[in-house]
Amino acid sequence: MTLPAPSNNPGRVLISGGGSGLGAAIAEAVAQEGGTPIILDLDTSAVPEGFASYAVDVSDGRATERAVQQAAEEAGGLDAVATAAGIDRPAPFGSLDGEAWEKVVMVNLLGTAAVIRGALPALEQSRGRIVTVASSLALKAVPDATAYCASKFGVLGFSRALAAELRGKVGLTTLVPAGMKTHFFDQRDEQYKPADDSRLNDPANVAAAVLFALAQPAGCEVRELVIAHELEDSWP
Fold it and tell me: Which of 51, 54, 101, 148 is catalytic?
């Protein structure tokens, strides 16, 4: 008797920051594999028709938890979460006002925690998986990026601790992507924009890495995964 091939359908995947950039690429990849993308974003206007979406500012932790809980309830549960929401405000530490500096940390680090906190009961029930999105700048510090590095170093530490805490109950992969061809750099001053965008990775490649992590068989976890264009110079 021939057994059916295992399905790579990722199921119900909630994606923070899923309205654009890497998050949108993850949502598209989930849909292509037969899964159900569920989008959480500040701006949901570009979310494709047919995708469930919830508008929320992930820097508001309690509102984010409520939105995730609502999404899980309306989807009948969750099988995975990918935390792709992120912002940056590159500038010398002394010239960036405290509110702007803290906003980066609130979105990138505290928003990641809030999304997972809201999703955790559903993920524990389904023995699901989490993919947190750190950055190559969670491994390498650079000038004028104190807020971003602080937030992404924080995501890495948070993810490692949470993976240890949830082992055997919920899977967790920390994705460490380098620069991608998205609109992430559009609002930066010229001095902080990539000098050569040909060295930026296609977000579809990074989304495929997320699906790879989610497709691991029971008992196997990809704990950390660095992905970059072959000429990327922010890693190592």
Answer: 148
